[in-house]
Write a structure and sequence with these properties.
Helix content: 40-55%
Distance between the termini: 29 Å
Order of helices and strands: HEHEHHHEHEHE
Radius of gyration: 16 Å
Oligomer: single chain
Structural class: alpha/beta
Strand order of the largest sheet: 4-3-2-1-5
């Protein structure tokens, strides 16, 4: 492909959200909304702990191990920072500090991303392993897909990130 052809293609960004840490999920949504606001077609692929960002509140899992894991799976309001969580005190502290600095809360940031047309994809394999069903995810999730679908998206992207 020549540079000239590249200029006429739609710009695309693909972001893998592997982390379920509040600060990392926030960074992913800030980058995604910034890309979307810049006119870049943006896709986010949520896998393993990252699924918490698109999961509804509530228990998941069918097997004993999945139900045990479910005790640690939160929704977007329940995830804590990667450092200094201190049993949830860090989450509260960060939310207070972000409010003082007029930082958009994580649930609103996710809604902004959806409203701006950011495509949210959930990892099928992670969901099967962790016992998360489609109905455990928020309705705004575009699709549940395998890694091959994400690779096809990323292959067309100018920006690919792993968070």
């Amino acid at each position: 492909m020549s540079g000239h052809e590249h200029e006429h293609e739609a710009k695309k960004a693909s972001i893998v959200v592997f982390s379920g840490d509040m600060d990392k999920v926030m960074a992913a949504f800030i980058i995604a909304t910034t890309a979307a606001a810049s006119g870049i077609d943006t896709t986010m692929f949520f896998t393993f702990w990252g699924l918490q960002a698109i999961k509804k509140k509530g228990a998941t899992g069918k097997t004993f191990f999945q139900r045990m894991l479910s005790l640690f799976l939160k929704d977007i309001n329940g995830i804590g920072p990667s450092k200094l969580n201190m049993g949830g005190i860090g989450r509260w502290m960060f939310k207070q500090m972000m409010k003082q600095h007029n930082v958009t809360p994580l649930p609103e940031l996710r809604k902004m991303a959806v409203d701006m047309g950011v495509k949210l994809l959930a990892c099928q394999m992670s969901m099967e392993v962790m016992g998360i069903r489609r109905e455990d995810l928020i309705d705004e999730v575009s699709d549940v897909v395998g890694a091959a679908t994400f690779i096809a998206e990323a292959n067309k992207s100018h920006i690919t990130l792993f968070i």
